Amino acid sequence: MKTVLTEKKDGVLTIRINRPEKKNALTPEIYAEMAAAITDADQDKNLHAVVLTGTADTFTAGNDLQNFLDAPPDVENSPVRDFLNALSEAKLPVIAAVEGHAVGVGATLLLHCDFVYAAEDAVFQMPFINLGLVPEAGSSLLLPRVAGHQRASEILLLGEAFSAQDAKEAGIINGICTPGKALDTALATAQKLAQKPRKALVESKALLRREFEPLAKRITREGHVFRECLASDESQKAIHTFFDRKKSGGARP
Ligand code: COA
To answer: Is the distance from CB of 32 to CB of 82 less than 8 angstroms?
Structure first.
């Protein structure tokens, strides 16, 4: 059975981690396939969003612990690093759909996603401290930014499991849904994104994801991209549609 399943449909790439017998624990092969799928999606002009999900009762139990013992991954050059690079630099919005457990990198990877939806009985954990390890995947930087220092300390220094409600209050997830409905909820958002002008979508995400820079520099950067987008066919068409509908007495776009 394939451990990563992909499907492209209606402008959306869905990547499903499919190793249920091991709680979707991530192997170098799974990381490599997910990295390739995300990188490929960025080049596909027909796609507007990527949805990342697991199986019915598990998102992922994180890195395969046996693999940690057998072959600790190289810091700069390894499938896990390729995956984290692809995810953190993804051009298209990435939406995660979480059912069941999201543990270790299964939880920290969510910090790189743009939207996260979880079932109300989902369970999150960043248990690195309990394993004698430290936070990874940029989580020591991203989690305090998202959740604040105190809450990040609770999650990373105590290493306890927490609920979907806790994850929502910490700002890690966007929404909570009925168990079994996380993928549908993620796909509904993906469909909304599929209707957006692609260039504006990609450029907006890039601006949102940029590291800190002085405000004046950011305003200038936005201005350059704004002008570039304004000249695009998609933008010109949308603005003309606004005036045409007004002239014919129709609703605004
Ligand atoms: N790496 C390797 N194998 C894993 C795994 C992981 N991260 N997580 C689960 N598995 C395996 C188990 O060893 C077990 O295999 P077996 O049937 O051959 O014995 C199988 O998946 C089922 O796991 P089990 O622990 O029995 O399921 P559960 O429903 O009782 O618990 C979890 C689910 C996710 C809470 C639990 O498996 C867990 O805590 N896993 C480890 C999470 C972790 O520490 N990740 C790494 C962080 S750095």
So the answer is: yes
Residues of the chain with pLDDT under 70: 246, 250-253
**The pLDDT value given to residue 248:** 76
CATH class of residue range 4-194: alpha beta
Residue nearest to ligand 1 atom 36, measured at CA: 61
The angle formed by the CA atoms of residues 150, 120 and 41, to the nearest 5 degrees, is 85
**Sequence spans of domains, the chain:** 4-194, 198-247
Report pLDDT digits (tens) over 180-227: 999 999 999 999 999 999 999 999 999 999 888 888 999 999 999 999
21 C-alpha to ligand 1 centroid (Å): 9
Give the number of other CB atoms < 10 A from CB of residue 215. Answer: 8
Q: What is the dihedral of CA 41, 43, 46, 49, to 10 degrees?
A: 40
Beta bridge partners of 8: 13
Rounded to 5 degrees, what are φ and ψ at 214? -55, 145
**Which ligand 1 atom is the nearest neighbour of the CA of 64?**
1
Say if pTM beats, i.e. exceeds, 0.90: yes
